[in-house]
Amino acid sequence: MNVLTFIHSHIQTFFPMADQIKALNDYLRNAEKILFFTGAGISTNSGIPDYRGPQGVWKTRQPVYFDDFMNSHDARVEYWDFKLESWENYKTVQPNSIHHTIAEIENAGKLLMLVTQNVDGLHVFAGNSREKLVEIHGTDRLVECMACHEFTGPDAHFEFFKKTNEPPVCAKCGGFLKPATISFGQSLRQDDLQKANNAALLCDCVIALGSTLSVQPAASLPRLAAQRNVPYIIINRGATDHDGLPQVRLRLDGDVANFLPAAVKMGLR
Ligand SMILES: [Zn+2]
Fold first, then answer.
1. 84 lies in which domain range?
2. Ligand 1: distance of its center to the CA of 44 in Å?
3. Residues 170-191 pLDDT 10s
4. How many Å lie between the centroid of ligand 1 and the Cα of residue 147?
5. In CATH, what number is assigned to the domain containing residue 159?
């Protein structure tokens, strides 16, 4: 790590918080086509658990791999049981100030694309448009047939599972139904990946929020943008895999809610 890189990655050490928010505001004012990349850290304030965090689900449950889901009844039961927890939780969760602020940035005409790793659907509930949203790991808010690929709402399927403990099947074709999230070992959707890639090649600023930037290939998207030398801003509580990259112009450590809403309130023009 050279001296400049070191200073960049430790820039917050030298700036008190008001200066950090002002620096973030400067980038927001100067950008016209922002690519946002969001992760679990922006939804924890809404009561969505961070699976990988210290209290994460993966400390107590084994993830179900896609091949196992397709080949094992027990694995399908386990997956539906795991998703049932999320579904019950979704009855009460609401978007938080971070989601609302990103929607505000879209309303101000500065959003090129919002790529999220989150499957909670909260960006849609906050008012971001579907045209500018890529849910790169899918969504819990829909259920997909693994045979005919029809999407349906999840409620009836979860009610069925809750009653019978049997994984539901497609009413049309009998195929396995699966919450429309991308499982471990399952490929990302090509059209989503294409849309996100295009945005990475067109944006004039890339901002990663609440992600450790460690899950591939998703985390390669902000990096692809950063490699074009557009400003790369990272806000996350704790270390990320992109800390120390020379393209990172601003690295803020802490709850995104402490930075982004205040920076937008200072004005975007
Ligand atoms: Zn079907």
1. 49-92+138-181
2. 34
3. 999 999 999 999 999 999 999 9
4. 5
5. 3.30.1600.10
